[in-house]
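Reminder to self: tokens first, then the designed residues, so the page reads top to bottom the way the pipeline ran.
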């Protein structure tokens, strides 16, 4: 660039608009060229207050830490103690979230079952029904009961170790998912009772109820089908966590699963993913408050999902009051999705390994989010299960390390008093003090 314009006037440094950014301009051009909204998978890409904005205090004189190799820190958790004859007993407080067969390949579902089973935890079916691969390799399997009812049948309900009624998902509160025709193979079509190769859009609400009273009826119906043996979870998106948790508990739920906006999805509108719902961090304390107000905290278990990546995230969620967490996107990455070894092929698709989110197109080079036989053959479910087991082991060890450093002999003994916040936003959402103070925005007894 020349230093001066033709009139000899010096140039100023060009500035990009803070409103019309490169990303915003690209979205406008794409919309103008195609006339359709953008569909993608994955979770929110915008930066929001998160677990990274919290720190643990650790123990010193006022609190005594535990020796890492001599003193135990328990990780076992039981979900569904309220009504179920056979509650879900897990060795670790980390579960695998619902991801459907259709969105994922059969071998990927098998790998999730293998890895979760080896780690002593549960996996979840997702939309589209129960596959023999996942049931066969999961000693603890949660069956998702979704508005679409795809693949739903009473026989599979009775085979499940828990049932999760899905009311909402963090990536798309108030919206249904999508499965494009290229991923509806013969097998997927048969399981979902759909025509092969035709796009489908899942319902955004259950067809047989219009409000909370109907949820109570549905829970009772499912309990009767399963002989009151298995826990009934209710999964809600991070929209109105206090009220949704309250209504789920009053309807009879054994477990509430709360999914924040960092949670992923196989496919939905980009505008949903980025602009609907609340950050996971903002959802936990209102849900815990609802349970406490009802006198049901720890009696009805709270599972948090949406953006969990590390043992630190696990420990922070539990310190804020969760009983367990669920992982989805992180589990797929552990299996091998978005692996840089496929970078050349990701480039040929017009993207890069770390940004690939066009899972709905069924072209995943890793063979995980596809129904293409050639691509699926690249993925080894045994190796994938081993990788997932290792990842779950590391998450657990990291979370235990933090709990011991805070002087806790069980993960459930972590508490908000073990945390401080680095930002005003995180302090307000988590209701823990801003670092270096004893105050957070909205703290009772303060007027500022």
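Designed residues (448 positions):
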């Amino acid at each position: 660039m020349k230093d001066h314009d033709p009139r000899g006037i010096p140039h100023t440094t060009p500035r990009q608009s803070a409103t019309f950014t490169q990303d915003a301009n690209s979205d406008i051009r794409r919309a103008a060229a195609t006339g359709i909204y953008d569909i993608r998978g994955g979770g929110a890409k915008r930066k929001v207050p998160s677990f990274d904005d919290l720190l643990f205090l650790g123990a010193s004189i006022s609190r005594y830490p535990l020796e890492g190799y001599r003193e135990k820190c328990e990780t076992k958790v039981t979900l569904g103690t309220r009504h179920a004859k056979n509650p879900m007993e897990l060795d670790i407080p980390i579960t695998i979230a619902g991801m459907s067969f259709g969105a994922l390949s059969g071998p990927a579902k098998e790998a999730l079952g293998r890895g979760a089973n080896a780690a002593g935890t549960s996996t979840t079916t997702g939309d589209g029904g129960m596959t023999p691969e996942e049931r066969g390799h999961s000693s603890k399997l949660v069956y998702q009961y979704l508005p679409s009812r795809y693949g739903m049948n009473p026989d599979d309900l009775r085979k499940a170790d828990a049932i999760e009624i899905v009311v909402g998902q963090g990536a798309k509160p108030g919206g249904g998912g999508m499965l494009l025709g290229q991923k509806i193979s013969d097998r997927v079509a048969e399981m979902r009772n759909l025509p092969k190769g035709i796009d489908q859009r899942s319902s955004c609400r259950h067809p047989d109820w219009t409000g909370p009273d109907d949820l109570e009826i549905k829970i009772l119906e499912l309990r009767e089908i399963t002989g009151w043996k298995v826990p009934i979870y209710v999964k809600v998106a991070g929209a109105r966590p206090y009220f949704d948790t309250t209504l789920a508990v009053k309807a009879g739920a054994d477990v509430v699963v709360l999914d924040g906006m960092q949670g992923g999805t196989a496919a939905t509108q980009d505008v949903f993913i980025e602009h609907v719902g609340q950050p996971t961090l903002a959802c936990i304390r209102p849900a815990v408050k609802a349970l406490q107000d009802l006198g049901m905290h720890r009696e009805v278990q709270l599972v948090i999902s949406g953006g969990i990546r590390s043992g630190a995230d696990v420990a922070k969620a539990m310190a804020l009051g969760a009983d367990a967490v669920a992982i989805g996107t992180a589990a797929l990455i552990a299996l091998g999705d978005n692996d840089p070894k496929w970078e050349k092929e990701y480039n040929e698709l017009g993207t890069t390994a770390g940004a690939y989110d066009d899972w709905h197109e069924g072209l995943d080079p890793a063979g995980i989010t596809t129904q293409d036989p050639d691509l699926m053959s690249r993925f080894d479910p045994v190796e994938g299960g081993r990788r997932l087991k290792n990842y779950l082991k590391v998450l657990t060890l990291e979370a235990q390390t933090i709990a011991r450093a805070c002087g806790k002999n069980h993960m459930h003994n972590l508490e908000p008093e073990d945390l401080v916040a680095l930002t005003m936003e995180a302090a307000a959402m988590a209701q823990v003090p801003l670092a270096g103070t004893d105050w957070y925005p909205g703290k009772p007894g303060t007027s500022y």
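The mean pLDDT is 94.
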